[in-house]
Amino acid sequence: MILAACTPAASQSTAPAASGASAAPLGGTISILAIWTAEEQDTFLSVIQPWVDANDVTVEYTGTRDLSTDLTNLVDGNSPPDIAGLPNVGAMVDFARNGDLIPLADFMDLKQLEADYNEGWIEDAKVDGKLVGVWAKGGVKGLIWYNPKQFTASSYEVPTDWASFDALVEKIKSDGTTPWGVGLESGPDSGWPGTDWIEDLVLRQSGPEVYDAWWGGTQKWSSPEIKKAFEAFGKWAADPAYVNGGPNTALSTPFGNGGDCLFTDPPKCYLHHQASFISGNFETNNAGKAIAGETYDFFPMPGDAFNGATTTGDLFGMFVDTPQARSLMKYLTTVEAQKLWVEKGGNISANRNVPLDSYPDETSRKIAEALNGAEVVRLDAGDKMPAQMGRAFFGAILDYVKNPGDLDKILADLDKVQAEAYAQ
Description:
By secondary structure, this protein is of the alpha/beta class. The chain has two domains: 182 residues, Periplasmic binding protein-like II (D-Maltodextrin-Binding Protein, domain 2); 208 residues, Periplasmic binding protein-like II (D-Maltodextrin-Binding Protein, domain 2). The chain contains 17 helices and 13 strands. Strands 1, 2, 3, 4, 7, 12 and 13 form a seven-stranded mixed sheet that branches. It has a four-stranded mixed sheet with strand order 9-10-8-11, with helices on both faces. It is globular, with a radius of gyration of 22 Å.
């Protein structure tokens, strides 16, 4: 999920260095629009600097926190950037079907892409079978965070499969502590952390075919497979015996604070389900207490029947077909570019051939290793659903945690939204 704040756009023109240029540099100019500003903008520009130096291209970069609005306005005004970050997969689909995005297969090295990226990443960058996007960087969902010191003190062990995972949760509860810390509040997007749970469970319980049919609108929400995932989530998230503070507290706790109970003494929870980016929240909220590898670590959510990873990431698309745009789109997918991203810290590469020793800390290395080792990789399903369906999904999570006995009605209502949203 990309959360955009409305802040003024930042524009920067980067003049290339002449030294180190290739024998036949491209020259010219490329315009780029993306969500990154401030330090993130500096990181992106440093990632593409080797390409700039080698090709003698001037970069006109604009960073905006309101990427969706600004990109749409530029495209509608017939003045799109050459390449741009895409707000989400749904926007990619819309731009592609409107004929705004340039298909990439004519110039991208597809065999190299297949060697570098899990097939899930490649498929998630296609629209109607055509490759129209590349992944600048990735992120991993479906991680279970825990406090190693507290685990050791309580003689708990990291589970290796679903049975031992479920047994661990039951053991924590029977020992007198609520196992889970959960935060579902996120302003107008409240509920999205729960959608990540459902996505992880659908993929791990029922596999990629059901997962793809579900986000694609042909698998009903009321089907046994999707209901099973909701019930597995609700067994923990909707029961006061399993959630720190109870379900009502989970509903009102900001998602960035949901794991703070890992760091209390004694612990108020032992487990927290959240994406790779949450480590920053741990350290900000619990200064001096949250220390990577010492007081927080993670393990991937084990599979029930399938082992997989749900992901998020930043996509780029090409809106104007120029030699400079083609060249930069190819560069962004390379091990060279991806290695520079991860060396800056806080980033995970979708390219599985980036050396693990490129990551600056053990936690990032482990996350990358878990992603690279996943049998099945699928993008966050909610990001691929029509906007109307995604919003209903958020709301359904909140309704279910409040009233778990209403599950059948909640799923039936989602079926109705599905019929409307996918008919448009």
